[in-house]
Structures are given as structure tokens and as C-alpha cells.
Amino acid sequence: MVGSKTPVVILGAGGFAVVVHEILSARPDVLVLGCTDKALGLSERSLGEGVSLRILGDDDILPDLAEQHPGLQAVLALGPDLMDVRARLIRMLDLEHIPPLTVVHPRAIVSSLAQLGEGTVVSAGAIINAGSRVGRHCVITIGASLDHDAQLGSNVFVGQGARVSSYVELHDNVVIEMGASINSRVSVGQGARVTGGAFVNTDVPDHAVVVGVPARVVRYIE
Predict the structure, then answer these.
(1) All residues at 6 or more sequence positions from 68 whose CB lies less than 8 Å from its CB, including other chains
(2) Fewer CB within 10 Å, N- or C-terminus of the chain?
(3) Can you give the pTM of this predicted structure?
(4) Please, are residues 140 and 120 in contact by the beta-carbon 8 Å criterion?
């Protein structure tokens, strides 16, 4: 602990990191140390107008940060185009025994009967209904919704305005892009991607990419 505050490092330094930093800055219980960035501060939004993110170094400094700041926690702020990097960093955090921090925007609606896994980020306007279970290190972005009893694995990314109906199951490392809709009782397989605006009403195989209304498989991710 740093005083009465928990030290936190944000993994990533782009636009999503700015969003996470803003949410955390309003919390009196945390002290944001800064961000890690493979580009060492040169990623496309880390030097954006009016934005100042402190770049601590690349991801390799995490063990040193944990030693320097007892009680350190971390939150991933990397988008859906970096799912492999997100998965690698999750493994690294587990290996270094750095616990993830759950981040929920005060204007999100999360049922008291829902469960959020450690490290999950829930943005403004998101809705998570009763009985939903969200795994570790998931992202529920602006205006996205999970109806009752939806089940999400780990490292699932639900994009802006996407709608996930009741009893849907999203397996590990799934991406649901902006504006996509998943019908009730559908299962989306591990590592699959539902593209923006698609409507899914049948199960999606592992690592499939689906497009359209109704959604169809167009290729598989290797």
C-alpha cells in the first residue's frame, strides 16, 4: 500500500488507457503510478491533445514495480486488436503474482446479483443484468449490455453498444465488435470474433470470424 491507497499500474498507453485512467482518477482508494507501453510513450494516442499519461517503461518493468510498490495491482487497457498481447500479459501478471484490479465506471449499471471477475473493466453506460457472470480481465465498453444469466469466460471484449442476450455463453478470448447482437442461448466459441453489426442466432465455432445478418462464418483465426 502507498499510505491508504492501492498502487495501480495501467498496462497500455493508448486511448483505452486514457479512459481507464480517468475512471481511476476519481477513486480515492487507488494511486495510479502510470502506464506501461511497448512503444515507450510513442503509441498513437498516448501523446494526444490534453492527455498526459506517465509512461513508466515497457511491460518488462512489472517485476520491479511489484518489488518497489508492495500491494501493486494492475489493469489491462488494450483493445480488441491486441487480444494475443492481452492474453500474454494476463499470464505475466499471474506469474508475477500481481493481482488485477476491477474497474467500473460510476455510470455503469451492474446488478448486485451479477458477478465480475478480477481485472474486468466496465465503461460508462454499460448494463450487466442479474445472474450474469463475467470472467477475469473482460471488457464491457460504452453502452454494451449483458442480459440476465449471460456467461463470459476470461479475456472477453464486448464492444460499444453490443447486445448480449440472456443465457448466452461467450468463451475465453472472444471479441464482440461494436453494435453486434447475440441472440438468447447462443454459444460463441473460444477465440471467435463477431464483427461489427452482426446478428448471431446460431452457435459460433472456436476461432471463427462471423459477419452479417444473420451471421455466417467467413474464416477462421489461426
Answers:
(1) none
(2) C
(3) 0.91
(4) yes
176 and 153 Cβ atoms separated by less than 8 Å: no
What is the reported pLDDT for 55?
87
- pLDDT tens per residue, range 20-50: 999 998 899 999 999 998 755 455 444 455 5
Strand pairing category for 208-211 and 193-194: parallel
Are 150 and 167 within 8 A, CB to CB? yes
Mean pLDDT of the chain: 92
Question: Which of the listed residues 48, 78, 95 is the one where a domain comes to its end?
Answer: 95
| pLDDT for the residue 40 | 52
219 within domain boundaries: no
Chain centroid, CA 188 distance in Å: 17
Among 208, 151, 172, which residue's Cα sits nearest to residue 91? Answer: 172
Express as a percent the part of the chain with pLDDT over 90. 84
By the 8 A CB rule, do 92 and 99 touch?
no
Q: Can you give the three-state secondary structure of 77-120, one letter per residue?
A: CCCHHHHHHHHHHHHHHHHCCCCECCEECCCCEECCCCEECCCC
Q: How many domains does the chain have?
A: 2
- Which CATH number characterizes residue 128's domain? 2.160.10.10
